[in-house]
Specification:
With 442 residues, the chain is of the alpha/beta class. It is built from 15 helices and 15 strands.
């Protein structure tokens, strides 16, 4: 969708951090403080995804988030490190928008298109229409059904558009149009859309797939388990998982010959077969999943009984990008206790859990990070490395119990040495194919 004149548009999203009791306050009587904040969070994430899609489709777009209500590091963890951020100044919405448009047009030129985060039916096509309309109009406006506007764009700064406006009332759009007429500005009008401010605005969201679980706060959790000849342990793992509601289980098998697939289907898991590596197993599992939350689990790891609730609670914090459970094995020797202590220190203090602790995150974050890299080994280590740059990774106090069979088969000291050599080799740039061959011959 390239623009004929080659003009550029800076997309300005005005966002507030979703703090309970301070977000979508007019919806608190209906949704509760946490529910209203959760809705605000989802609406913002949806708006960001629409803006990102526009930027990917057309290089003429750039995106800036004008933020308030939290630290920059929290916004970067929540919405991504790939975006530009600017803090909103003090003042009412008019003063904050005026400052954003002035700064953008003074320093960047082109078009400036600002919009809020409470328009669930905003699309990349509407943003493109706003962009192209400014090639032969002075102003573009997106009228909201409640009498306000959800979008305003301009190519020359007009401060008059942000003063003497009765913000938050049904007169905002009319007053803005009158100012444009007084200034002799040509206005392009976008389709009229609904925004979400009042309880009566919530009804259409019930049929919108992205917001359908707002009132219940029970988003689906997809548990993704890669397997290869895991018949001995898989049944116990799947039985544990069935203790939680609103969970789907996906087993991605790499060609087992021991009945692993039969066990998976017996316990009601969705069974897929992928033989091109663990990273592909994980990514394919996500592709075939439906959950808002993802849990990547080894076949020999047993989770606590309330694991689903623990994951939901951890990911309720927007600045938490991922998490894992505290590490414990099924062997109680002193040597294994030392291994567990070292693993939990690395996980909790260095924020670097491994895959055998049950790694979980939002699907949105997984997609924005590009999923697991297609490498033959160290795929979980590499993904965690990228996630650490984005934001906080939590280690829960609750334990996931992993089989100690790998340490028992190879020996504890030798296993530790091999693991550290793999990490060191990866960090200094040894090709992962070479690392995989060395690991197989350990």
């Amino acid at each position: 969708m390239a623009t004929p004149l080659g003009s550029t548009s800076r997309l300005l999203i005005f966002s507030r951090y979703p703090v309970s009791g301070k977000a979508k306050t007019r919806l608190i009587p209906t949704l509760g403080a946490e529910g209203a904040a959760r809705l605000h969070r989802r609406l913002t994430e949806h708006a960001i995804s629409i803006a990102r899609a526009s930027c990917l489709e057309d290089s003429n777009y750039n995106l800036t988030v004008h933020y308030t209500g939290a630290r920059l590091k929290d916004f970067r963890a929540w919405l991504g490190c790939d975006l530009e951020y600017k803090i909103q100044p003090r003042g009412d919405i008019g003063q904050r928008m005026q400052a954003a448009f002035k700064s953008t047009l003074d320093h960047n030129g082109g078009h400036a298109i600002g919009f809020g985060t409470d328009i669930p039916n905003l699309t990349p096509a509407i943003l493109h229409q706003a962009h192209t309309s400014l090639d032969d109009h002075d102003i573009v406006l997106g009228p909201a059904i409640d009498g306000g506007y959800y979008l305003i764009g301009m190519k020359t700064f007009h401060p008059e558009l942000f003063v003497n406006i009765d913000w938050g009332t049904d007169r905002v759009y009319q007053q803005t149009q009158e100012i444009c007429t007084h200034l002799g500005l040509q206005v392009a009008e976008l389709p009229k859309l609904s925004d979400i401010d009042l309880p009566e605005d919530l009804e259409p969201l019930k049929n919108h797939h992205y917001f359908s679980d707002i009132s219940t706060d029970k988003p689906l959790l997809s548990v993704i388990i890669p397997t290869l000849n895991e018949a001995r342990v898989l049944g116990t793992t799947l039985e544990k998982l069935q203790h939680s509601d609103n969970v789907e289980i996906i087993v991605i098998d790499a060609g087992s010959q021991d009945g692993t697939g039969d066990i998976a289907t017996r316990y009601g898991a969705k069974l897929l077969t992928i033989t091109t590596g663990r990273a592909d197993q994980f990514n394919t599992g996500v592709k075939h999943s439906k959950g808002r939350y993802l849990l990547f689990l080894h076949a020999d790891t047993l989770l606590p009984q309330n694991y689903s609730h623990l994951i939901h609670s951890a990911l309720a914090d927007p600045s938490t990008v991922a998490g894992a459970f505290r590490f414990k094995t099924d062997v109680s020797s002193i040597a294994m206790r030392i291994v567990e202590w070292g693993t939990n220190f690395r996980s909790a203090i260095l924020k670097w859990p491994y895959g055998d602790q049950g790694l979980f995150m939002e699907r949105r974050v997984f997609d924005e990070m590009g999923g697991f890299s297609r490498i033959p080994i160290m795929e979980d280590f590499e993904l965690i490395r990228r996630l650490r740059h984005r934001g906080n990774i939590v280690t829960l106090a609750d334990e996931a119990i992993t089989s100690a069979r790998r340490w028992q088969n190879l020996g504890i000291v030798r296993t530790i040495i091999v693991n550290q050599l793999m990490i060191a080799g990866f960090l200094i740039g040894v090709p992962t194919e070479t690392l995989k061959r060395l690991y197989r011959h350990k």
